[in-house]
Amino acid sequence: MMKCPPRILANLIFVSRPLQAKYMYHPTSRSQAKDCPGFAVSTDSRMATKVDQVSEKLRSALARCNEDRSQKILSPDLVRGLLMPPSIHEESCDEGCYDECLGIVGLPRRPYHNELAKRMLFLTDSTDPLLSAEDMAMSELPTTKNIHLPTIPDIFTEASCLEWLTNVGDEGILRLLGLRNTVGTEAGLLPPDWAELLAASRLPHRDLSPPHDSLTVAGRARCKHAHRGSQDSFFGEVTGGTREKNEAAESVLDKILREAAWINIHKSTGIEEIVLEVRVAAGYGARWTAGWSTTPVKPTDVFFRGFLEPQQVDGHENRWRH
């Protein structure tokens, strides 16, 4: 896999272009950016070491916050969420997988303090980590636009980590993790992990069908959406048997999770449960419902609810074709 050149990485920022992600950097060709799947960033052993060092300092600072809550640096629930252990995926990641996971977009992976370390190292003070809501035909409430990122030497002390956590607060942490703030957003919630989301998408769409004989809920949903994204082939063509259709659906979901540019946990019209909505820069996405009543950082009862089309004013009239 081709890596993003360092000169691209140093100046990476999203700028306006309807329904697409475009890069602003001191120019190299746009084709070079396209060679970076999921906007993954270049890494080597030195960068991996820096990530590990910053992650460990953040973990130590968060552990201090968890032990001494009188400091009130972050909300206790968020501190617990940032300290949660990795899911099955991260525990089994080899070096190659780590390289692919390292990026500034995508649904964040546990442990979140490690995700924060990656993003802190790859962004600069002038960089908004998120694609503009307007670029995706979405709307967002005013929020922290410029997250203060400490210089690399300063972050290697626990005291500087505590100071940074104090300055950035809950809102800045959630924004750096990619979570949006809209009218219906349920503030302070963290998403289910990748393993839970994918497991929910693999359930058979008919309860009485043997799993190996049935389309999964995601497989069936993709069959319904494929013709709508035919212009840019986001969902691909519907071919093959049940197994091929299920695998194709999971491939689409993997792309959505890796390249997520819009993540919102919110209340949705017509759905009682809270919804996790994940979209790529082109506007396609998927959504799940889950329960956060027990804890805001570890949801339960995760259900896949279907794929999403880009926002369109005349979507119904066009039958959501793109």
Automatic annotation (TrEMBL):
Record lineage: Eukaryota, Sar, Stramenopiles, Ochrophyta, Bacillariophyta
Annotated PANTHER family: RNA-BINDING ASCH DOMAIN PROTEIN
Name assigned to this protein: Uncharacterized protein
